[in-house]
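Inputs:
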Amino acid sequence: RKEVEQDPGPFNVPEGATVAFNCTYSNSASQSFFWYRQDCRKEPKLLMSVYSSGNEDGRFTAQLNRASQYISLLIRDSKLSDSATYLCVGSNNNDMRFGAGTRLTVKP
Amino acid sequence: TAGITQAPTSQILAAGRSMTLRCTQDMRHNAMYWYRQDLGLGLRLIHYSNTAGTTGKGEVPDGYSVSRANTDDFPLTLASAVPSQTSVYFCASRSSGTDTQYFGPGTRLTVL
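Outputs:
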């Protein structure tokens, strides 16, 4: 069982839709959490860090629930350019554990 | 700004041969990492280095070795490649005091 689990999808949504991704982690020692975005055949790029208080960056909102060891990403008003794979990450110092990713396709 | 570069972009390698994947960063980041990415498994850490002169093992280190002679370079060596090492390899770096890792463009390796 992977340390970070995500629903692989795919999620197929129309433009303008709101979509939510969930992620669970098993290592309670994980200290930092992130969402990365990865386009097909490209390198992962940081989308946003995730804090216990929750954080928002434009159309993107991330939440962390340490008690349930659960992380979420909400994308509002989806754009075609949001189509990508979203990677959930838990980190304990140098040990970053990635989920296998959730594939999102936004359609016109 | 170059950021992180990796070479080669792709490679087909015969089983049993050795190969070194190169990674260079120009951001003066102290920490560097090597990951492999496989379908359905996501990215898995192979080796890391917190600073020049030190290295550590990640989640899947067997069959790989690294060195960190200076801040900028972090080569990954496969001494005797096997087909299960067919994967996409990403190098990453991180500045001290932050958690954000920056990734190189990747090397696609096929071992036949």
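Remarks. The interface with chain B takes residues 2, 4, 8, 32, 34, 42-46, 49, 87, 91, 94-101 of chain A (CB under 8 Å). The mean pLDDT of chain A is 92.
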